[in-house]
Amino acid sequence: MKRDYYEVLGVSKGASEQEIKQAYRKLARQYHPDVNPGNKEAEEKFKEISEAYDVLSDAEKKARYDQFGHAGTDPNQAGGFGGFGGGGFGDFGFGDIFDAFFGGGGGGRRNGPQRGADLRYDMSVTFEEAVFGVEKEVQIPRAETCPDCQGSGAAPGTHPSTCSQCGGSGQVRVTQRTPFGQIQTARTCPTCHGEGKTIASPCRTCNGQGNVRKVKNIKINVPAGSEDGLNLRLSGDGEAGHRGGPPGDLYIVLHVKPHKFFERDGNDVYCEIPITFVQAALGAEVEVPTLDGNVKMKVPEGTQTSTIFRLKGHGIPYRRGSGRGDQHVRVIVSTPTKLTDKQKQLLKEFGEVTSETQQMGKKSLFDKFKENLRDAMG
């Protein structure tokens, strides 16, 4: 038993012509065989909705269907008025459906200009090169337009000709007979393989491809302040286009090698330097390595280990705009080892004349414990 045509399209009996068309368009897009290759269920569904649309979109057939049901459109039933085999569904093909509703014959034209492919090159740079910038030259293998045929693929002095089988469209239509009439499908032209043109005398340099493989030396300007993972885009330095299309782009991906002394955080750099117990206690001027060379840094007396000092303007240059970040220096107080007897004796004497608070540079843990105990006891 055939289903009700209105039910097939999911519309009411009072649906307008536009509503019927919209419902069919949605279902045709979903169940079209080109969208569901090899799916028999989708193919049968498509035939069913196409049959329903063929009747409901025709005012005369719709009127007969509304009055007599399926018998009004089926020639095999009594009182039939001619159906799909008699020209109702006729030559309404798959390609025609896509032409009418989706803007093309299913496959679309492929013989126009095509943009070349983008390329990626991963480049390693040192920490200093990323900080201050550098110019490097790299070798990029890529497809370039053939210098002899200028991308046409035809031998010098000749030209490609329009394909005689498809007329330059790159596609041919194949007609098949079905229970619903003749159905047309659009397929890639077997003669020109979708190019729309044929070449009688291929260029010997590129074998008719229009492009040749070459290794190109390209200079890369790494800007100051570059960070790890930065993408540098070089417009037009990718692979050559096809049929007059523009070339693609080249993307340089930077990989910054870690530094043995500095660590980077944004545009600031961090480092650690050791200082002696005497320098920390009495204060001193120490030499600190920076990206610009060694500089003097003042350590005030009584400096504690892990204290951080800032050297303004000694960090990473800003990639956009002017100025630089800062350098942050953490000092680590080194404990002396392998002391002589005299040194040990001097330290003991120092300990005898120095309170624990003075030695710690702050309240000792024992002092804090006693204060907390007093507070707890009221």
Please render the helix and strand layout as text.
Elements: H1 5-9, H2 17-31, H3 40-56, H4 59-68, H5 94-101, E1 119-125, H6 127-132, E2 134-145, E3 161-162, E4 171-178, E5 181-188, E6 197-198, E7 211-222, E8 231-234, E9 250-256, E10 263-265, E11 268-276, H7 277-282, E12 284-290, E13 293-299, E14 308-311, E15 327-334, H8 341-352, H9 356-360, H10 365-377
What's this entry about, in short?
With 378 residues, this protein is of the alpha+beta class.
Description:
The chain is of the alpha+beta class and 378 residues long. It has ten helices and 15 strands. The protein has a four-stranded mixed beta sheet. It has a three-stranded mixed beta sheet with strand order 1-9-8. The longest helix is centred in the N-terminal third of the chain and has 17 residues, at 40-56. The protein is elongated and about 120 Å long. The protein starts with a helix and ends with a helix.
Which key features would you list for this structure?
15 strands; 26% strand; single chain; 10 helices; 378 residues; alpha+beta; elongated; 3-stranded mixed sheet
- Count of alpha and pi helical runs: 10
Beta-strand proportion: 25-35%
Please summarize the sheet with the most strands: 4 strands, mixed
Q: Please state the CA-atom Rg, rounded to the nearest Å.
A: 41 Å
Q: Percent range for helical residues?
A: 25-40%
* Average pLDDT level: 82
What sort of overall outline do the alpha carbons produce when their principal axes are compared?
Answer: elongated
**In terms of structural class, how would the helical and strand content be classed?**
alpha+beta
DSSP E strands, number:
15
Distance, first to last CA: 97 Å
**What's the arrangement of strands in the largest beta sheet?**
10-11-15-14
Uncertain ranges: 77-109
- Element-level helix/strand string: HHHHHEHEEEEEEEEEEHEEEEHHH
